[in-house]
Amino acid sequence: GQSLEQPSEVTAVEGAIVQMNCTYQTSGFYGLSWYQQHDGGAPTFLSYNALDGLEETGRFSSFLSRSDSYGYLLLQELQMKDSASYFCAVRDPWTGGGNKLTFGTGTQLKVEL
Amino acid sequence: DTAVSQTPKYLVTQMGNDKSIKCEQNLGHDTMYWYKQDSKKFLKIMFSYNNKELIINETVPNRFSPKSPDKAHLNLHINSLELGDSAVYFCASSQVAQGEQFFGPGTRLTVL
User: Fold this and answer.
1) What pLDDT sits at residue B11?
2) What does DSSP assign to residue A52?
């Protein structure tokens, strides 16, 4: 089975940098995805790490350490619009031909002035 | 252009009724999914189809029946609705075995 843990809530100030962690225990692992979801909205894809290291896309960066079963999402130059829930998700190689994503419990990010 | 669309957006119904949710994607993807998100925002996969073939069938009551008439459409029919079925149901699509999935806007189901 798969289980993913994320802190439930993080608060940060506009313009700051915030890191949201994700630890996972899985019976198999293809990669780690990150999704953003605003209240009342749909999850939207942010990034995907299949290999160890840092992936950067604009203000967002995602890191993966497969040996530590750990990843994080880093947001720089925080803006009020970044207030949302952030989910990590593991792709399971043993189910559905590698199509199954198991989501973490999500971190609610609150950005304050 | 809408990538993944769902209808209806809101569904309010009585216990015991039967209802359907429809999903369509115009991204040319070959894999589609149904997810349930509960009141605590926990997002869980229910079903997935690849080219009209069921490939993921999680532990879901058999009152829930998906159907994929073609690879661009995936519907979800729910029989004998229960209070615990109240949730937001998301349809999603992807290319096969990719970490990126595209979600529809969701259907908020309320069972009274």
Assistant:
1) 97
2) S
